[in-house]
Amino acid sequence: MLNPYELLKELTRLHGGSGDEDAVRDRLTEVIRPFVDELHTDATGNLIAFKKGTGSGPRVMLSAHMDEVSLMITHIADMGLLRFRTVGGIDPRILIGKRVLVGPDRLPGVIGTKPIHLQTAADRKNATKLKDLRIDIGANDKTQAENLVKLGDRAVFDYEPVEFGDNKLMAKGLDDRAGCAVLAWLLQERYTFDVYGCFTVQEEIGLRGAKTASFAVMPDYAIILEGTTCYDVPDTKEHLMSTWLGKGPALTIMDRAVISNRPLVDFIVETARQNGIPYQFKQTLSGGTDAGRIQGSGEGVKVATMAVPCRYIHTPVSVLDRGDFDAMRRLASATLKRLPELFGRT
Amino acid sequence: MELNDSLKVLCGLSAVTGREKGAASQIAALFEPLCDEVRTDAFGNVYASCRGEGRNPRTVLVTAHYDEIGLVVTGIEDSGFLRFAAMGGIDAKTLPAQEFTVFGREPLYGVIGAKPPHLVSAEEMEKVIPIDDLRIDIGYSGDEAKKRVRVGDVVGFRFPVIEMKNNRMASNAMDNRSGVAALLETLRLLKGLRHDDHVVVAATVQEELGLRGAVAAAFSTAPDLGIVVDVCHADMPDAPPDDQFPLGKGVAIAIGPIVHPARTKEVIELAKRERIPYQLDPEPGDTGTEAAALQVAREGIPTILLSIPCRYMHSTVETISLDDVRGTAQLAARFIAAGPWKEKEGGTTC
Q: Whole domain around residue B310: which residue ranges?
């Protein structure tokens, strides 16, 4: 049996910036191959697994994205320092004092800042802008840097997972390796209906992989497994915390990309209640998931998103509660097992 | 142990300023094989002494502080998050999305996070998040956190040493473990050199809070000459050019009112003669280093200041060149062995 939590930790160690998800896809391919019926990688890089149902019924797509937020080298500047842009949404203020690995050779580098001793009063008040940040790989000068790094090379965060506190896990890329680990675990089971397990690419730059994956699958139902925003930190307005750590997986009613299928969401809530599994609703409408793309494919798909709350998402030090991760697994599994009941209703 | 290995060990120690105790014994252990005697004083300064072979030996004190900037817990929220204040010159910009060790009843992992960009307004993104608005997350409920952490516990950065191209290394503690590594290297080099004078190297405490350890070290060793090893700003974009000493281009030798003019001139001449790369560091003020404290300690101690160029000082990625650390140690060791000051009167003239 697959240990989903160990798989999660392992997956967060792999690097997979949007468009560069190979390492994550290769590992997931190895993991799920033994228990799926068909497996292929499509032209955009999505990994699509098929598992035949024991009976008949609608097609159900389960999806989780493999990519994580990262950086791209856009200019090699004087002194051999590297200018970069973000691939996906990153607040530039979190980049100062971080360690990264640059390019296919994973050259160690750091992102520095003008020291506090040399900052003007304005420097101290105003956030450093992305255009003023550089990655330092220790190159002596521009020529040496040009020999080590190419424009378009990726830089990824170099952070190892840490278990701490009361059942907490810190890791980079919990968004959405948490969903990937749950999806891999769910694929061990055989359901009465046909299941397509889609590990998608390029979610962080506009839900791109999900578009082709859902076109290929043309599902009737889709459940998107995610890591989502959470900022339950003191002094934050309660309704802007988005979700709370430790209160179970978060269900989306609506966000910037989708209005979830209400009967499907209600069915998931009913399942949670029947099984005594905690759940919560995401309180903010911010962000969007692959659900947005999948919903609009073909003649329309009934979608719902369930997500593990991740504090400090889109930073190299995101944090989840293992209880939430386990609850999401149980809720997804319980939902799938009784999903034919919903087919009967609609 | 090779210099890069000892620097890695030193950077792996946590010694938040004022609470350096945990690191003292490990620094003493690194000194032990390289000297005649090691001791630690009440303040936490760690001394390694090497006896001189001359008939009328004087005493040279070489200092490098081993404390580092950090945080101190000032409150525990009912939600379990920790409030904190800065210990030393912390830049608020360097704190979001960082890992820490909270020195509670047991060392605990902690993280300062950041609001997800999805929830940050464009206006908010322009501003530095004030330290008061940040919290440390140790992953416990309020009750559990209060059992494990007390107000006053210190918090150190948790950041691995990064080895980069051209012998460059980054760590949160290069200011001033790179200086302590230079002390180790100085001791190692002195084993192969004849020196008439007694040498005491001191890894000192509480520099970041106001040069406090060095004052005690000067009192306790009553030296005839002080050599201070610290870091200075290295080259980086957007910083004033006269505050930049390029990485890998050698030790920066301070010139200015607080360093002794004759000793400084001698050390520059020695660097030239021995072809040890160096840069001149004009310092009109008190430098903020231990040289300022040694100069006016006791009846006044002739002092020179040798600085290792360091990029991104007071961040988690303070970056130095190992070549500069090695050069600094070579210059210090040869200066001690050459002992040019012995020929001079009292040491007050240029």
A: 3-68+172-343
